[in-house]
């Protein structure tokens, strides 16, 4: 334990020495605009991308990536909210011993799950098109697995 504490103290002191008082005005380039040149952008496209950035226009693959991220958040949020509601409704029906109501709630969940599966399939097709637009050096967007998302949402709603 003492050796670990000693190493913790050494690491902490080293970090403090590097950070100092937080004043970075003495560093090269302080106060100047950051260069946003990207090594992933081919040399022949850099001028075009700079013009686009200066005019607040983005390549279609960036816009598509942002739209996909927003769509994924909405899908996940809707799924999680629906899973929580399902758990609440099923528990309420069980506590009142309403078998018919439980059957209805489970049927509604199954319909939701089938619709969600179709939405995920559409999302994955859009993700595939997005991946084809990406410059080759950038990481591709993975596909969503509806079955895993559904299981996870139900598990989290039950916790």
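Sequence proposed for the structure above (159 residues):
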């Amino acid at each position: 334990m003492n050796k670990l504490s000693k190493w913790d103290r050494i690491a902490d002191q080293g970090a403090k020495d590097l950070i100092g008082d937080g004043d970075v005005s003495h560093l090269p380039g302080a106060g100047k605009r950051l260069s946003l040149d990207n090594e992933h952008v081919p040399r022949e496209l850099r001028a075009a991308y700079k013009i686009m950035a200066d005019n607040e226009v983005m390549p279609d693959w960036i816009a598509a990536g942002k739209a996909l991220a927003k769509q994924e958040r909405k899908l996940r949020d809707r799924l999680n909210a629906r899973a929580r509601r399902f758990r609440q409704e099923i528990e309420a029906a069980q506590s009142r011993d309403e078998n018919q109501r439980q059957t209805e709630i489970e049927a509604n969940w199954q319909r939701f799950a089938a619709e969600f599966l179709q939405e995920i399939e559409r999302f994955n097709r859009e993700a595939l098109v997005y991946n084809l637009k990406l410059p080759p050096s950038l990481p591709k967007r993975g596909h969503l697995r509806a079955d895993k998302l559904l299981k996870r949402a139900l598990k989290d709603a039950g916790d």
